[in-house]
Amino acid sequence: MRRVLRALGVLLILTAAVSCTEPSGADDAKSGELLRHAEPPPYERILPAPAAVRPGGAGYRLVPGTVIRTGTGSEEVRQIGERLAEQLRGPSGLPLPVVDGGAGDGILLRLDESAAELAEEGYRLESTAAAVTLTARTPAGLFYAGQTLRQLVPASGAGEVPGGTVADRPRFAYRGAMIDIARHYFTVPQVKRYLDQLAQYKINKLHVHLTDDQGWRLAVDSWPRLAEYGGVGGVGGGPGGHWTKDDYRELVEYAAERYVEVVPEIDMPGHTNAALASYPELNCDGKAPDRYTGIKVGFSSLCVSKEVTYEFVEDVLRELAALTPGRYLHIGGDEAHATPAADYAAFMKRAQEAVAGQGKTVVAWHQLAAAEPAPGAVLQWWGHDKTPAAERDRVAAAAKAGHRLILSPADRAYLDMKYDKDTALGLAWAGHVPVRRSYAWDPGTHLAGVPESAVLGVEAPLWTETIATRADLELMAFPRVLGIAELGWSPAAKLDWAAYSQRLASHGPRLTAQDIGYFRAPDVPWP
Ligand code: ACM
């Protein structure tokens, strides 16, 4: 399908300017006209936009004696305080010791389990002359309060947290990003860096695409050649590599400390050339193909009629589940063009049973709607504005039958789509995706027949056919991933391109201070 789409892409690019519809927050009169940067007041700069802000009153001055107070009794709150102190020390240049006890001035972290209005991940932040008080019902909420505070502290030097109150909670439970470490291999330290960048914008899921035609990137003890042989190489024939189980555990732990859940993906039954190359018995003809370094899709399939295929699936998912404290296992299911439809349905049924057998919840790309999604299975929509009606209708029917959706529309949320015709990296089969287009849509109304209640959340995937380095990754992800973070968190009433683009522009210096090599997109009024 991608090949056809790639050809269509050229056409799309030509028509994108007129066919782009922006259901929410669109201000057509201004489209095409570049706003000048007008630095918003501090509480309007918070990204993602909070549910409610009330600026006013005297603010809290950060001084050399400022302490962070984490109350008594909770080691987890203490850890959140320590991490916040580390994050604030750099910009503020202050020592910011973390102390037990709740009374006194400073930055106060408070868990209040009775604050029902703050929900699972919400928080309140109050800045007065005496203190900045962060209150949440859960540790995750306190972590997010701290991330908001970071954005209220001047980008450099000590200074004042302006007076005011934030009362905030997310719109969606699933706010994700995906990194494909199969096409080009990325190390755990590289992925940790990306995760840190994302968590500060309240993204709480990191989907890792661990396997594809070009590489198998996670060690599996019962099938060791998957990583040892299938992990060598990648697109263009580079060295490749794979994560050991300890590498993976380290990432999961690092993510959990930042309230991010890792969602691992083993893509099946297509996108499996690396596995087929590693084990001849997984092929219907018993012959292993060569390893693959190109970027075509849709040519590989596990052998659906062989029982050994299901031993493989169960072994891999059992080992993966044992490493993964999160609730989801993603089993791919996209672009299985080399698997006949009946075989696809039979295979996905057994793969879903294997996930259920591990006590996990299935996530799959939305092609699963053409088979039989198991009860509770979550579908990830990656269609775009030219996806045929029949495919959309199947997804809407699945939503009606109770399946929740993660929305990753390729012409909005795919971070590997080129920004414009001059973007050196990336692909264009879903058209060009300038920053405005990636932001100006509403997940609650995006898909006909899919009500907001069926939307679990949003995710910005970064496929890496053309992305090989940290610099490549940052240039394509930033700033677009921040718009997806806002769509996942902020209430629909706050989604507005004019306000967002000013808010985003004010983050340029913050991204630079973190050495994030973002794209200075021409549709954003950077200072
Ligand atoms: C996909 O882009 N094949 C999910």
From TrEMBL:
GO molecular function: beta-N-acetylhexosaminidase activity
Leader sequence residues: 1-26
Active site (UniProt): 335
Family of the protein in this entry: Belongs to the glycosyl hydrolase 20 family.
GO biological process: carbohydrate metabolic process; glycosaminoglycan metabolic process
Domain of life: Bacteria
Assigned keywords, A-Z: Glycosidase, Hydrolase, Signal
GO cellular component: membrane
Domain Beta-hexosaminidase bacterial type N-terminal: 45-168
Record's catalysed reaction(s): Hydrolysis of terminal non-reducing N-acetyl-D-hexosamine residues in N-acetyl-beta-D-hexosaminides
Coiled coil stretches, renumbered: none
Protein's UniProt name: beta-N-acetylhexosaminidase
Keyword Signal: yes
Keyword Cell membrane: no
Organism of provenance: Streptomyces venezuelae
